[in-house]
């Protein structure tokens, strides 16, 4: 090596050492609140932690168990009110606006501009992530909620076929029950009741009236004849769940389908994360089909992290690394393969994704054109947490009282929503 070469090498080594030292010196910590604790969820969260740590920052895990995130939101409120919020929290939909109103969230516009978020994300998503025109949250994925997960072996043993509409659902459920299996795996928790209810509502109301009910909060639709029919159909489903349903976690319900105890579950595609974590193959070990009667419709649920104002500069930097990483293409791929959702970026290569994910992506894009892309009420995308809570109460009370009157329930629903508006 020439003298000049040795000198250049030395110089770059010194520069590298300095850069490494300074990146460690600047490395910050992000504390991240989430509720991803099931098998598939934990695997997905681990990808984010790993990618952040690779950049020299540290991850302080703040996991609060409880599907749907109700417990996580309660814990978050306590922490924020005591003046000690985490760096980022899994906050979705309308809740982002509520936290923005309270003045807790920080702007991510510099990261968003550098990453051209406005360009790579669908408008239906960016709208939700901005508060007063500034990005304050980063989307992780798009979950489709109106899915049905089926065990083909159980269907075969019962001589039933995977249902495409409600009539077929009840016909199949009868056969499966007679064959000694649980037709519908369900966890009796308010958010799961609401998830099932919203799938039935989507079919019976249709997309337009679904939006009128849960987005516009139209009293006539909320208390109208189609809502009565929705409650009546939802009530019929109760005959096909087992008596151990109350309080059961959603992933336990999924495992009943995985191990052949139950035939079906109506649940968002985070359930696919459980099948994947159990090493199951779609099309072979399990079937994904649209929830009965909702083939061309898409109830969307977008997971996102909202970012809180911090006072420590290094932690602020680390926060930006996290925001950037979430929309990194490699992260989007690995995370969503584990989580069961589809990437939120529109410019992704989908080669590694399975048929369920490809169907989801195709329906996501097509439904955006036809008006059949609707926000999930049960998962906080359609309305405020107050209205959502009111719907949960009416729906859960109704479902737990098998003699409740569907007509009265629809009227109660309208009254409860009105009081929460
Ligand atoms: C979240 C999913 C999560 C599911 C069950 C939903 O509200 O969006 O990410 O997997 O709850 O915990």
Automatic annotation (TrEMBL):
Keywords: Signal, Transport. Residues 1-27 form the signal peptide. One of its GO terms (cellular component) is periplasmic space. It is found in: Periplasm. Part of a binding-protein-dependent transport system for a sugar. Belongs to the bacterial solute-binding protein 1 family. This is Probable sugar-binding periplasmic protein.
